[in-house]
Prior knowledge:
This protein is α+β, with helices and mostly antiparallel strands and 641 residues long. It is built from 19 helices and 14 strands. It has a four-stranded mixed sheet with strand order 4-7-8-11. It has a four-stranded antiparallel sheet with strand order 5-6-10-9, covered by helices on one side. Strands 1-2 form a two-stranded antiparallel ribbon. A hairpin with a 4-residue loop joins strand 5 (212-216) and strand 6. Helix 11 (398-423) packs across helix 17.
Amino acid sequence: MRYNLFSRAVRLLNQNQNKSKQIYTLRSASNKASSLNTQQSDGSAREEVTTTAETGEKLPAREPLVKNFFVGLTDKELLGYPEVIPREEMVQLQNALIPIQNYFAELEQSTELKEQENLKQLGLYGLNVPTDYEGGKGYKWSASLMASEPESSHTSLALGLNSHRVVVDLICELGTPEQQQVYLESLAKGDLIASEAILEYTPPEDDFFGTQASYNSEQRSWTLSGEKAFVVFAPKSAKEQRQLFLVLAQTQHPNVPGHTGRGSTFFLVDSQLKGVRLGETHDTFGCPDASMRRIHFDQVQLTEQQILGKPHEGNRYAEQLVRSSRLRSSLLGIALSKRLLNQLANYSVDTTQGGIQIKDLELMRVHLSQSTCSIYAMESMLYLSAGLLDEFAGQDVTLESSITKYYTLQQLYAIATQSLGLLGPQSLHRGQPWERGLRDAAELCTQGESVSTLSMFIALTGLQYAGQRMNEGVRKSRNPLFHPGHIFGKFLASNSLENPKTRMLLAENVHPTLEPAAQCIEHSVARLNMAVELMFTRHGNAVVERQHEMQRLANIATILYAMWASVARASRSYCIGLPLADHEMLTASSICNQGRDDVMRLASEIYNGNYVNNDNNLLRLSSQVTKSKGYFPVHPLMFNF
Length: 641
């Protein structure tokens, strides 16, 4: 059920009417973004859609939220923060989490290893398994993430559980009924623990993966060979635990030789199969209780029933894999950020230096507030993305999930490192909470996708989407002599980066107090669109080579989604009267004010170009650094004899 109100008056007077069983809303027949509907409201057709809270039916997918930011469009109906868990189910979920919370609270005071049987009894392996299978809780995205929060306080343990759930998500989406029948019940009960086996220690230069599978058409079987690295295994206390590995291997299309026929395929490989050999354990910087190992596949024989999805289509299915992985790993980053903030807040309250409590120092107060704003934005983005998946059938959240992880990792590491300067040497004493937090933060930032990879993915995906819709205008701008009218119209336009003109009317869908914040979002969306159009006009197809500018675009899109999710959440909290909702409004306003300034700075750097924003100087310096293979200036006290 979406918390959806049409005007300020209705929002303030009827804030409790959405608790009824049926909600009647007016939606555009074309399902276009609301900013377009505003401009064409006189001629657009409207239809009445009835949604029932009790039914599990999803609404038709809406246009992608963040992707539309790149073309200057917004869907203001999505400013209604999702309410996908009905009140009765929320009470049941909270009651079900009590024993899990108590168990992990006791572990905070204990140093003993987490017993595998306890995790099974708590049902932690079956949170996202359908209820059709014994042990399955049937939680959807939002409920599954919420139920995973208690364990997230133990990062090492949660890594293994998250890897298990990512594989379960993929089997539920891509698996055949036979595969689901074979695997899901064992996975739900914890008798079979799943892990992703995607990464490789030394990937090849020319191929997708060093791990390859060949098909024998006569025997209708596959032979898997190679090795995978950084595979998260079951908790260390689990002896001889049976594992299920989700392996992504390179395959070759039949009758299509060479690079053209290369593809990739997902395989479900049981650890007890002949030829599966466990390698050495990785001793990582953080998460000391997590068991990560290499795994070798020596001519492992697999049947066609062990292929997940279609053969050679792994690259297409990988999007669903990384979506689940990004959302679930973001939850770990949020939990660790909260833990670091809580520890620092308690330290600032309990510590006095020079007769002054540390909590009263302005530097400490600013750091605590900035960390709170960052965590609020992380959490808002995570559950907004999950709510979109729960509410709309087949909703595209590719960018939303990527941005959530990208922002979470950035802010998590900033919180962990900035705390060191405030705490001093004690923060790095072996075994101290802050030292463990820093190690775990570094581990999460390098686990799977790196931050730089995520930023490039965000920018490339947004540019690809925008390029398909802005092609005609960009073509005219790049050929001004053939389209003088187009150039003359842009010359007369009063729109500018400093004062963009917008007609999105986002303030109509949030609490009146957040009208300035909504205006910040509108201006930032317009600036992102202007920056994208300028990059296309200036560079054309070569825009993909401008990686520094693409990183700026990714940062703008990330800030925008953080602003959007925070405003939507704060508006809902204040309208329904949640505790401390007035401080949530202040938090959202702070996020938007800071975000507006950051977007303006980044967009200005793109507009100024390489010769003004210092990019050209940096590129020239890099040539000498690589030529000298390192730092090239001579010692500052040397003479030139």
